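input
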Amino acid sequence: MLLKDLLIRQKNNSKVAIKKGNEEINYKQWYKQSKILEQEMYPFIKSSKNIAIFLPNSIEYAISYFSILFANRIVVPIGVQTMAPELCSTLTYCEIDLIITSSMFLDKLKERLREYSYDITILIIDGTPVIQTGQKHCPVPKSDLIFPKSEDDVAIMLHTSGTTSMPKRVMLSNRNIIKNIESNNNKKNNKNNIIHYEWKKENVVFVVLLLFMPTLL
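output
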């Protein structure tokens, strides 16, 4: 089973899936909106197998996350607090040419990309036109273009803080993440099966581990 299958199995479920303040979304809406974003994304997908998300924990983040999985690409979460050197390093290292954000964080993202020398397409989830920036093409080795198709293929690439050493990127497979979700669900008794976004930190890259509840598994 792939990570994206967890939401596909719930695509006709009208039960509330995520709550954030006064906002909420059910599984059916979540699936539909992720599929719509996937289709909007296709004209701008170039050669890279990795697509970044520059958003805080939110319903928009969850929609973006699954739109990337539905497109058979690898998710690279980037915290909105990430500064320019780390952001540009991550984009280059992960060979990213498409990044999803919202109009709220567009100016912050553009400012931090000011010195970035490669082409990058910014897809704004809430309807603002796509913006192109940069002068060069980020080279992507054709031998590396293996898109996630099996449980052991990479689904998400996480950037570590590097507090004790140089920053690193950790690759998690579909199998890794689903095992973590199962473990997390076994420890919690979530009777309502609703995700509540009440995290104090602005960005938690392991957000996907908190995005599921027993009804999905």
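quick obs: The longest helix spans residues 27-41.
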